[in-house]
């Protein structure tokens, strides 16, 4: 099932795809998805960020087997950095060089705390493409990552949420800049998998509906400059495109 | 002027104090405060967290002159950790020892980015008491502070927002546990003052209406255990009380 949020003349609406229309629903996070009857053609609909997180977390150093030798670690990103498909990532020259990072993003569906591995599937609403934009020269001077991770538009997510992914731990990720492939990898390259991540994170804090976990970049980053376009494709989900300004 | 949010039979309401009543307003963040005409007696009203931040930042190492020798630094707290007066701070035995930290909290009133010192007063809605609860043994194993700062109820704020404070950089702070004073200090003990903090923060990210900046703990922390009560008083604002469970 494909869930999204679209812009309509009367405001943003949560929707589910029914063939060639987006069917408006009451609430993506309700136990049963209730359609209102309102529909919009898929063609021409403007997609927004598919969720509105209160909490956005990213996994630090989670890109290869060596990272399992140290404990998992996460950082928080400002919820104000979240943007949707087509919205601009705004670079600030003062922040230095910037990379886009293509990552599988988990969208949380319900309150989650102290999860066991068995409970993890039950709290995941679905999956989207995340771009953990990073001003990487700032990381070197701020180990909290507050300076590097929170520029305007630094967390593109979308284009939609796929609720059914057979193998989230083995999905191809491709990062293109201006149409040229810069990185190709798989979520199988992550040190800590999705279940381990959510067990770890919820042992320390509460996640809730709409929250996003960026699962880490398995060598899926690419340097960008203003005027370019970033396209991130994840197998089974789709392509998230954003201009860099 | 004193702004708050209160619980009413028909839901939470933003209010302003007019003598012995809380007068409901349309929006704390509107250019002009518009009263709806609905009022509630101050006596007996249940206060909620006075704002609903999307972004909560805390200043790291900001407690004395030596901290000016290193650059300012900030960390993000989950917006889901925010609670109001009287709500419980929930300790998780697995997280180890916990301290409360009494801090002056800035409540942002409008979108703020790349501020000059002169622009800072114009983006501040007001001031409240913040408690930057910290599981400090976790700080030692997670330099991102994600593990130490995000337990349930780890960011009490309130009891209300004072919009007029003559000297935010010289306010007495007192921290009491079960009524016994554990720490007394002043915001004058902060390394980087309020203006410097907001110039620094907004050079890296955007803040917006309702966001909270915890300005740092000038030696205003106290160890707490379940069953105790924390009272934090800041001169010119009031006292924020929370049970520890």
UniProtKB/TrEMBL annotation, chains A, B:
Matches recorded under InterPro entries: FAH, Fumarylacetoacetase-like_C, Fumarylacetoacetase_C_sf, Rv2993c-like_N
Keywords for the protein's UniProt record, in alphabetical order: Hydrolase, Metal-binding
Natural source organism: Oerskovia douganii
One of the GO biological process terms: small molecule metabolic process
UniProt keyword annotation of Hydrolase present: yes
SUPFAM superfamilies: FAH
Protein name per Swiss-Prot or TrEMBL: Fumarylacetoacetate hydrolase family protein
Family statement drawn from the similarity comment of this UniProt entry: Belongs to the FAH family.
Every Fumarylacetoacetase-like C-terminal domain range: 68-244
This protein's record includes keyword Hydrolase: yes
PANTHER family xref list: FUMARYLACETOACETATE HYDROLASE DOMAIN-CONTAINING PROTEIN 2A (PTHR42796:SF4), FUMARYLACETOACETATE HYDROLASE DOMAIN-CONTAINING PROTEIN 2A-RELATED (PTHR42796)
Entry GO MF terms: hydrolase activity; metal ion binding
All residue ranges annotated as the Rv2993c-like N-terminal domain in the record: 1-50
Source superkingdom: Bacteria
